[in-house]
Amino acid sequence: MKKLTVLIIDDKASEIEKAVAIAKARGWDVKTCNPSIHPEGYCSNNDWIEMIPSVDGVVTDLMWNHGDHGEKPQGLLVVIEALSKGKPVVICTNAGEFQKGHHGQAMGFINDGYYTSSDYKAFGLEERKDWKAAIEGLAERMSK
User: What is the pTM of this model?
Assistant: First the structure.
């Protein structure tokens, strides 16, 4: 049986460490992209876009700083790219309540415009920074 490889994207090294430990405990190989340690201060499109074809699945944070543009829902771009390559993907973010904090607008859009309007879910969404649940959700998607 082929050993699975996953890509984990988050802007906090401590969060990546948690996610990597959980993914490796499942026996997976792990690639990471950390926007905070990128030489330009963010994870450029080329970094994760070039990594996606070589992995079996992706877990991404929703929000991270995109250089001078501030914190944006870059994770949605990851979802689009991963799905366009046929890769399962789960967003793992610390949203708390949908309409509060810096996640509010993006999370409200995802929840109201997508998750409550359809039974089919093209990607997973873990609304709290629960890497174990996100990794389990990705495992389920990769097994289909």
Answer: 0.79
